[in-house]
Amino acid sequence: MIKRTIGDTAALSGRSLQHVLRSPDTIITTAITPIAMLLLFVYVFGGAIDSGDENYVNYLLPGILLITVASGIAYTAFRLFTDVSGGIFERFQSMPIARPAVLWSHVLTSLVANFVSLVLVVAVALLMGFRTGAGLPAWLGVLAIMLLFTLAMTWLAVIPGLTAKSVDGVSGFSYPLIFLPFVSSAFVPTDNMPAPVQWFAENQPVTPIVNTVRSLFAQEPVGSDLWVALGWCVGLLLVAYALAMRTYRRRLA
Amino acid sequence: MSTSPAIQITGLTKSYGDLPVLRGVDLDVTAGSILALLGSNGAGKTTLVKILSTLLRADGGTATVQGFDVASQPAQVRESISLTGQFTAVDEVLTGRENLALIARLRHLPRPGAIADQLLARFSLTDAAGRRVATYSGGMRRRIDIAMSLIGNPPVVFLDEPTTGLDPQARNEVWDAVRELADTGTTVLLTTQHLEEAEQLADRIAILHEGRIIANGSLAELKRLLPPAKVEYVEKQPTLEEVFLSIVGDPARATATATATAGARQDRNPDDTAATVGADE
């Protein structure tokens, strides 16, 4: 049974990755918004922002990586929506395919596509002067936390992918996620924000994740931010997964 | 051929909220036969097919396919069936060959590439094998859709309005594919709004009206429900379909269709067919 689940997931993931390969524009458009923000904030607003870091690209990159994922998962929802509205989803459901394979193939494809987009964004940041002395363990730490964040966001994207009635509805859900980093420590330190805004910024998931990634790149101790970040990611993942599976099962009723 | 029915439906009910769609459907389909399920839009045909193919849960009653209960043994049912839905369920981004090979892999068959090539040849799609399905015509899309359903030779095939939206040539190709299926002993449950399609293909015809099967029998049996035929002399004009087929160069078909449709002339308008039958009941 496990062998069959892996085989079916591999077959369906291969198909889904073909979709990504044949429309590489989805990866490029995923990367373009965060890259544009990177350019805008470094070269236009950056001079006026006092981040306490002489290299603003270094300060900015972690938040930009989160925005990359937030815009990337919109395509995950879109690909799933296309399957559901086009009928091939029902074909798969009526076939002797391991049940988890249909959704997991989309989730794995999302991880791969987002990873490629993240690499593109990091490459542009390096060209713009991003520098880190981080060694392999720190890079692996960044990779792990980004994958965990992408996984949680992907399961969140599965919900509109299964339930949306139109393409607009599918792509709309990710806008608030793209906006969330603006009210966090991603662009500017939270110290100068008015008290209520500061409270929100310091108690939403983006800030601890951004701070953890930033500390890993700067080779500083991550402190409690790491545990808060992991708590948020795992918590979001569990809630999103449970809701997505409930939505999935309800389609049968 | 086995004597027990391939599909057995008893007292099946299903409502969407307060709206009852199936109000107690009873129906048996003999193994190796083609049953046409007739009904107007909204009669519940698609709902019934979805329950039989484990995509929806019924509210009450039972249904078995090849002896497996659709509610309690869905995995075994899925091993026994294939579904061709109302709308073509193909992957537009993949090529025709990739679509077929994917389904063969998902049915856990050895040599998926070879299976794909075989079906491409059988459905005259070899030339289009390497093209993305997005570039296919409606008829080609339906053919690849049906070809995908035949992979692994499932003993029971559901076809939900397989010819809706097809031109006459494409429709004839689909009909040929269905006849071929029946010749190999596959049980086919076909839903349609077109009486002519049922006449052409089906061994038995069941009429689903307002959530119940209101008539079920062979064509001859159903005809006996009406008053005996009167002899009238009617000038036989070629139908537009016959004209179309002979002009575009499919003469054998045109004659065959002409003969076949001569008896069903009164049922030209597909939207009225089920209503007409219902009223005659």
Topology, pairings included?
The complex is a heterodimer of chains A (253) and B (281).
Chain A lengths: L1 H21 L2 H21 L10 H31 L1 H6 L7 H27 L8 H28 L3 H6 L2 H5 L15 H8 L3 H13 L5 H27 L3
Chain B lengths: L6 E10 L2 E11 L4 E5 L6 H8 L7 E6 L2 E2 L4 H7 E4 L11 H11 L5 H11 L15 H13 L5 E5 L7 H16 L3 E6 L2 H7 L2 E6 L2 E6 L1 H6 L15 H8 L3 H12 L7 H11 L1
Parallel strand pairs in B: 3-8, 3-9, 6-7, 7-8
Antiparallel strand pairs in B: 1-2, 1-4, 4-5, 9-10
Written account of the structure:
Chain A: Keywords: Antibiotic resistance, Cell membrane, Membrane, Transmembrane, Transmembrane helix, Transport. Chain A: It is found in: Cell membrane; Membrane. The complex is a heterodimer of chains A (253) and B (281). Helices cover 76% and strands 0% of the residues of chain A. With 281 residues, chain B is of the alpha/beta class. In chain B, a hairpin with a 2-residue loop joins β9 and β10. The longest helix of chain B has 16 residues. Chain B is globular and about 55 Å long. The interface between A and B is medium-sized, with 23 and 30 residues.
Structural class of chain B: alpha/beta
Low-confidence stretches of chain A: none
Sheet-strand content of chain A, in percent, reads under 5%
Instruction: Calculate Rg of chain B over CA atoms.
Output: 19 Å
**Beta-strand level of the residues of chain B, as a percent range?**
15-25%
Shape of chain B: globular
Tell how many strands the DSSP assignment of chain B holds: 10
Give the tags.
heterodimer, A: 253 residues, 11 helices, B: 281 residues, alpha/beta, four-stranded antiparallel beta sheet, 10 strands, ATP-binding cassette domain-containing protein (chain B)
Summarize the structure.
The complex is a heterodimer of chains A (253) and B (281). Chain A is mostly helical and 253 residues long. Chain A has helices at residues 2-22, 25-45, 56-86, 88-93, 101-127, 136-163, 167-172, 175-179, 195-202, 206-218, 224-250.
